[in-house]
Design a protein that fits this description.
The chain is of the alpha/beta class. The chain has three domains: about 140 residues, no CATH class; about 100 residues, Rossmann fold, CATH 3.40.50; about 180 residues, P-loop containing nucleotide triphosphate hydrolases (Rossmann fold, 3-Layer(aba) Sandwich). The protein contains 16 helices and 18 strands. The strands form three sheets. The chain has an eight-stranded mixed β-sheet. Helix 4 packs parallel to helix 7, helix 7 runs antiparallel to helix 8 and helix 8 runs antiparallel to helix 9. The longest helix is centred in the middle third of the chain and has 36 residues.
Length: about 575
């Protein structure tokens, strides 16, 4: 095909004749050099676009392919027919109408245009917003100064809004009259998309993300879970473009949310120029593969997001080993063939020919070998930690461990108690590496206090296992100080989540002191009620309120024979 033409007259006529003969719709994918890449045959009513590689990662470019198809009748293109433009990032779509005589009629050409910018998260659209226009509404093509753009022909270009996506439909006319320079059109469109994307970027952010929660329960619990996912995403430097909660009777075993809903979500993400879709569930390997095959937008589940945060925050050698180990354990069951790279490797030479070892198996073997090496390195680090703990036990120094939900203020409390400078940030999982400090109690006695990684609900087991060295510090504790963000609306659920994790790890028999932090953010009545109901001590690690009372309580919980030891040094 000529490179500059969307479709030429001879090809449109031949496609129409073939469709009329077999009474089926046909379609072809054509690249920008004019080569035909794929041929598709549908029914007399429907045709699917063959799945092809999409635009380069990280760019809002098109996939460099246009789809040419036939269709019986001359109705306007509807939303379902326009959807593949956004779903596959096609350069353009050209549909050839077939009349009753089986001849080619008008050709209907459509392409994407940048969507209007939308405010992130729960914005109510204005009455003039494209989101409030009727399905399939037609609005004039606008120029850069906001005035209607003049066209060379009457109604040559129209902007159509269907399912929230913006398309431009050229005037239907025979293929012989399609005189637009196709390559120049695509070049201009890609430049406009790039400019549009640059305007949506936020300095210092990793990208835009849509958060998705699929639930079979109440919407209130789903929104609470989404609040936590929002904190996780913001801790990973993502800009939240939108939050979506879908309620279902049951989870779809293949895609979690259903194939139709997944397609709508992908189109919506492309419209909002989101680089990530983050699912607030832990996807199975099969679900992850099915979603990845549906789009080239990066899809993360809850575990992957947590692992990403851990990878960013780990500072010590041991912490980095733990993160890599957790990532590889997560990756191993999700390794799958990608194209021809998974074909068998053949051994050369007479008598040596055979299927050999598949690349997929080689990848898995390498991952397993790396896991074994990391576990060995982690055991070495644990032995060193055990030696330090043994020396402390020989001296009978009491050990107190700070535990709690992530971002509860444990590290801030440790800094206040020990006048340390442990890294503190108002983000989830700001502390990953174990920190041990000595502390002098009011009765001039010495204890060792540990700061541990923050807990979170539904923490993957592999992640808990990988961070066993950090959590082993709790095992030798004489007291667990459970720090709670008392001002958080879901503090009770977070308390239960931490208790559940401690019990699962076998630390249920260690005495616990419940400490409500951030009491300065509660009114007097709420503070008194919550402290009384949970038999807790109230403090503010930020301004030091209640710290002395907490230390007195800590001394009461520790055995007297340990506290009567003289202070070293």
């Amino acid at each position: 095909m000529p490179r500059q033409s969307v479709i030429h007259n001879d090809l449109a006529r031949e496609m129409a004749q073939i469709s009329a003969e077999i009474n089926r719709r046909i379609g072809i994918l054509v690249d920008r050099a004019g080569r035909i890449e794929r041929v598709a045959v549908g029914s007399n009513l429907r045709i699917e676009v063959p799945r092809t590689p999409s635009a380069p990662a990280g760019r809002m470019r098109f996939c460099t392919l246009r789809f040419l198809a036939t269709r019986f009748g001359d109705d306007p293109l509807n939303a379902d027919e326009l959807a593949p433009l956004a779903l596959h990032r096609l350069d353009a779509m050209a549909v050839v109408d077939i009349d009753d005589a089986g001849e080619a009629g008008n050709v209907r050409v459509a392409h994407l245009i940048p969507a209007e910018l939308r405010e992130p998260v729960r914005r109510t659209p204005s009455p003039e917003s494209p989101a409030n226009l009727p399905r399939g509404a037609v609005v004039p093509s606008m120029g850069p100064n906001g005035t209607p753009r003049r066209s060379r022909r009457k109604e040559q270009a129209q902007d159509v809004i269907a399912d929230g996506e913006r398309y431009r439909l050229l005037e239907p006319r025979p293929a012989s009259r399609l005189d637009e320079d196709f390559l120049e059109l695509i070049r201009a469109l890609e430049e406009e998309f790039d400019r549009h994307m640059d305007r949506t970027k936020v300095a210092g952010k990793a990208g835009r993300a849509i958060l998705v929660h699929v639930t079979t329960g109440s919407r209130a619990q789903a929104e609470e879970s989404m609040d936590e996912l929002t904190e996780l995403a913001e801790s990973s430097d993502l800009t939240i473009a939108e939050r979506i909660v879908q309620r279902r009777q049951s989870f779809d075993p293949r895609t979690l949310m259903g194939s139709g809903r997944l397609q709508d979500l992908i189109i919506h993400a492309l419209r909002l120029q989101a680089e990530f879709i983050i699912v607030d569930q832990n996807l199975t390997p099969a679900q992850g593969r099915a979603i990845a095959e549906a789009s080239d937008i990066k899809v993360l589940d809850r575990s992957q997001l947590i692992l990403d945060i851990f990878a960013r925050r780990a500072r010590t050698h041991e912490g980095k080993i733990q993160v890599e180990l957790a990532q590889l354990k997560y990756l191993l069951p999700r390794l799958a063939k990608r194209g021809d790279s998974g074909l068998s490797r053949l051994m050369g030479g007479i008598g040596g020919r055979g299927p050999g070892e598949q690349k997929l198996e080689i990848d898995r073997r390498r991952v397993r070998d790396r896991i074994r090496r990391l576990e060995s390195m982690l055991k070495h680090e644990r032995r060193r930690r055990e030696q330090r703990r043994s020396r402390r036990r020989n001296r009978d120094v009491p050990v107190v461990s700070l535990v709690g939900y992530t971002n509860a203020g444990k590290s801030t409390l440790l800094n206040v108690l020990t006048r340390s400078e442990v890294f503190v940030e108002h983000r989830m999982f700001a502390t990953l590496d174990p920190t041990t400090r000595r502390l002098r109690l009011p009765r001039e006695r010495e204890i060792v206090i540990n700061d541990t990684v923050g807990f979170i609900r539904d923490l993957p087991r592999d992640l808990l296992d990988a961070f066993g060295a950090t959590l082993e510090e709790i095992e030798d504790s004489d007291l667990i100080v459970h720090v709670v963000d008392g001002s958080h609306p879901s503090f009770a659920r977070r308390i239960a989540a931490v208790h559940r994790i401690l019990d699962d790890l076998g630390y249920g028999s260690i005495p616990r002191l419940l400490v409500f932090n951030k009491i300065d953010q509660m009114d007097a009545e709420t503070r008194a009620e919550r402290l009384a109901d949970h038999d807790a001590v109230g403090i503010s690690a930020l301004n030091g309120e209640g710290i002395d009372q907490m230390l007195e309580k800590v001394a009461e919980y520790l055995p007297d024979d340990l506290l009567e030891l003289p202070l070293s040094g």
